[in-house]
Amino acid sequence: RSSDRPKNTTGNLSEGCEIRVHTRIHNTRPHKPLACSLLQFMDSVGNDASKAKYERLVPAFYYRPSHTDCTLLRDQWIRAKYEREEFTSVERQEPYSAGYREGFLWKRGRDNGQYLSRRFILSEREGVLKYFNKHDAREPKAMMKIGSLNATFQPSKIGTPHGLQITYLKDNSTRNIFVYHEEGKEIVDWFNAIRAARFHYLQVAFPVAAVSELLPKLTRNFIREGYMEKTGPKQTEGFKKRWFTLDDRRLMYFKDLLDAYARGEVFIGSKESGYTALPGLPPNIQSSHWQFGITIVTPDRNFLFACETERDQKHWITAFETVINRPMLPQDYAGESRFYLCVPPK
Questions:
Q1: Which of 329, 6, 338 is nearest to 164 (CA)?
Q2: In terms of residue numbers, what domain contains 335?
Q3: CA distance 99 to 84
Q4: Of 217, 244, 272, which residue sits at a domain end?
Q5: Where residue 266 sits, what CATH number does that domain have?
């Protein structure tokens, strides 16, 4: 089966406080009288007692969404706690905690943009997430090492509330995979299964690290994404519009926001290492179509970008400064030593 674009699945709960969400569950799922009894329970014992019961066995790796997260994550967090009561028994957590998960996801084709059903397998024992182009294929089309794996929900970017962007490193460049599933629970279970695999991987890699140190490394949202214009290394070429993603210390640019590979990647170090983000462009540079310039100063060369609005310029500079003002960690230096401005295969 194939699809030109993700199915815009519905059925998400309304935004707002948990009480409002419980009421919506009761209204939209009359065969589940849980919400009404839950409201009575919370009224009688209070929210703290409710959490003590329904969040008693939340795994450390399980993503606890905040109000800034997408609606799907917040919906499924509520449903996992109160509808399915997943955190009252470890047996109910097997879909994402067993160390192995297999199933079908709709994956966007790299060249034609069509979404095709693909079989995915996540194996902690093998240390990989892999997918197969044919349902009965023996050899995977791609193998993604858990050590470089990341997953982040991108509903607006992908065009469905259930859209998940998976990234991993291949030959030291970033590869994007865009997937979704019609069922919200399924795609969130995949997300938390990846987090579980990453958690166990990092526990082995950093045996003395505290759990609180590992949790921020399981998955991450991008610091900033959006369109800017850029010029080439000679700074004499015309400015071209590109989609940019700032992922930790990697600044990647793409011709299209759903491209599988970046056209190039730039390492963003710290101010102690000679990195700076400055508003504006050098005076000798031919003006771009967009007037609000940014100069990224690095030890090797300067990178020149232009934003459409002053607001975008300020937001990008703030994002760059967030990274540049953060001291480099040992693994950052190791990453910088292996890093180069790469042009992945088209």
A1: 6
A2: 224-342
A3: 21
A4: 217
A5: 2.30.29.30
126 and 184 belong to one structural domain:
yes
pLDDT digits (tens, 9 = 90+) for 186-238: 999 999 999 999 999 999 999 999 999 999 999 999 999 999 999 987 777 78
Alpha carbons 108 and 99: distance in angstroms, whole number: 25
152, 182, 217 - which closes a domain: 217
- Our CA dihedral for 183, 186, 187, 192, rounded to 10 degrees, sits at 150
- Smallest CA-to-CA distance from 110 within 254, 243, 9, 226 is with 254
Q: Judge whether 16 and 24 are in contact, CB under 8 Å.
A: no
Provide the token pair at 234: 């000679």
Amino acid, single-letter form, for residue 38: L
- Cα angle 258, 259, 261 (rounded to 5 degrees) comes to 140
Nearest 5 degrees, angle CA 97-CA 219-CA 324? 160
Confirm if 262 and 254 have CB atoms less than 8 A apart. Answer: yes
Type of residue found at 213: E
53 within some domain: no
Rounded to two decimals, the pTM is 0.84
Q: Two tokens at 73?
A: 């994550």
Nearest Cα neighbor of 304 from 241, 227, 225, 233 is: 233
Based on the domain organization, do 212 and 287 belong to the same domain? Answer: no
User: Six-digit token pair at 267?
Assistant: 């390492």
| Residue 96 sits in the same domain as residue 198 | yes
**252 and 271 share a domain?**
yes
What is the distance between the terminal CA atoms of the chain, rounded to a whole angstrom?
26
The answer to whether residues 118 and 130 touch, using CB atoms and an 8 Å cutoff, is no
Length of the chain: 346
Q: Say if 24 falls within a structural domain.
A: no
What are the tens digits of pLDDT across the range 288-345? 689 999 999 999 899 999 999 999 999 999 999 999 999 988 777 666 655 544 434 3
Considering its fold, how many domains does the chain have in total? 2
Distances (CA, A) of 308 to 55, 75, 289: 45, 35, 8
126, part of any domain: yes
State pLDDT tens for residues 26-66. 333 333 445 555 556 555 556 777 888 899 999 999 999 99
